[in-house]
Amino acid sequence: MSSTAPDTGRKYIDCAEFPTENNCQLRISGKEDEVLKAATQHAVASHGHQDTPELREQLREMIKDE
Q1: Sheet of strand 11-14: strand arrangement
Q2: What is the pLDDT of residues 31-44, one digit of tens each?
Q3: Coil, helix or strand for 8?
Q4: What is the mean predicted confidence (pLDDT) over 18-31?
C-alpha cells in the first residue's frame, strides 16, 4: 500500500515563506481560485499592496500544491 497521500487538488500559499515587515504567519489553502482570491484580499488589507493584475500573477506563481 502506498504511503503517498491522494492528490486532493488543494493548493496553498504561506506568508511565512516570504519575508514581511510584520512577520506574517498566515497560510491560506483551498482550491486555486479560492486561494488566489483570499491571498489577494490579504495582500491588500494586511500588506498594503494594490490589487493589480501584476499582483495577482505574482501571487498565482507563489501558490503550491498541498
Answers
A1: 27-30, 11-14, 64-65
A2: 999 999 999 999 99
A3: coil
A4: 91
Q: What is the DSSP letter of 6?
A: P
| Chain centroid offset of residue 10 CA | 11
What is the model's pTM? 0.83
| Residues 66 and 12 sit within 8 Å (Cβ to Cβ) | yes
Neighbours of 45 (CB within 10 A): 9
Q: Are 57 and 38 in contact (CB under 8 A)?
A: no
**For the range 47-55, what are the long-range contacts, defined as Cβ-Cβ under 8 Å and sequence gap of 24 or more?**
47/20, 47/22
Which amino acid type is present at position 24?
C
The DSSP symbol for 11 reads: E
